[in-house]
């Protein structure tokens, strides 16, 4: 009796990329002081206004089965929000409420990939992307975006990897790099997607965290609405990471089939969480800006400290809650540098290699602790890099 190859092969026979994170948590459990700059978790928690509404609606009886596609008012609110942001007609029938962005990513690939299909994504990538593809029985195909090009994907490189592919997954604003894909980049991607008859899965969970430039959803581009599945989430915009509430926006036919998938997997999202998400969306843009503002402050802190040294380079983050640092001048790769920084200085960052080979020799720093300790830890990181690079 054997387990399936699909379940055993989710990590491709290698690491899941979270080794430094696990080691940092182990050290903390042992009583050691560790400053964690690893995961995209707000240092504030979900606003009490949202939690109180969740509690109130649960007590009022919304603890039974909820509508599997999402409760009608929430689907309508998400549709109106997306249409207002993009100008593309979006109806409740274009919306499926999911158990967070990760569940949406899995479902979207399930919708467009057959077993054995090639599913592309841009490298550097969020750590779960390859496993999500493998879990669906598809073949992960990373497409490198070079640091020398500011981690902007090259449509010609995407086209060169597209033979036999059925889908392309992109993420802008980007985790882990903080880069926002330009209109030129997205228009080039749209041309490739249409020329190669691909589905585009657009992970836009950081769309409220924009520091420089503007976010453009590729669904707005000509000919793209009918071949794009957009991933959204309340996790980053409203600090609701633990509530596990997100959505997929797509053509009605795709959403109809995705509802069948939801019926046969998690059977929908708890009603009291959906009610809380609906309430949270009524708090408006000022509330969302308040949730995002700490990361913009810390970006400024990081850029100021980076400008005072020359051992570490960075593509300035345009969005999201991370900065990607080039530490190749130290002579170490991202894994070795992150391990040294953790074991010797008690600072945990993610190796660039956790996010693909295009980020080799880099580290990702999550700007997710209060300003003063963030500034101190970032300065220590730069000092360590300078010492290793022989600039002390």
Automatic annotation (TrEMBL):
Keyword Transferase found: yes
UniProt EC number: 2.6.1.-
CDD domains, per the entry: AAT_like
UniProt superkingdom: Bacteria
Entry's Gene Ontology BP terms: amino acid metabolic process
Cofactor(s) recorded in Swiss-Prot or TrEMBL: pyridoxal 5'-phosphate
Record Pfam families: Aminotran_1_2
Aminotransferase class I/classII large domain: residues covered: 57-371
UniProt keyword terms in alphabetical order: Aminotransferase, Pyridoxal phosphate, Transferase
Family membership noted in the UniProt record: Belongs to the class-I pyridoxal-phosphate-dependent aminotransferase family.
Name under which the protein is recorded: Aminotransferase
Organism: Thalassobius vesicularis
Lineage, highest ranks first: Bacteria, Pseudomonadati, Pseudomonadota, Alphaproteobacteria, Rhodobacterales
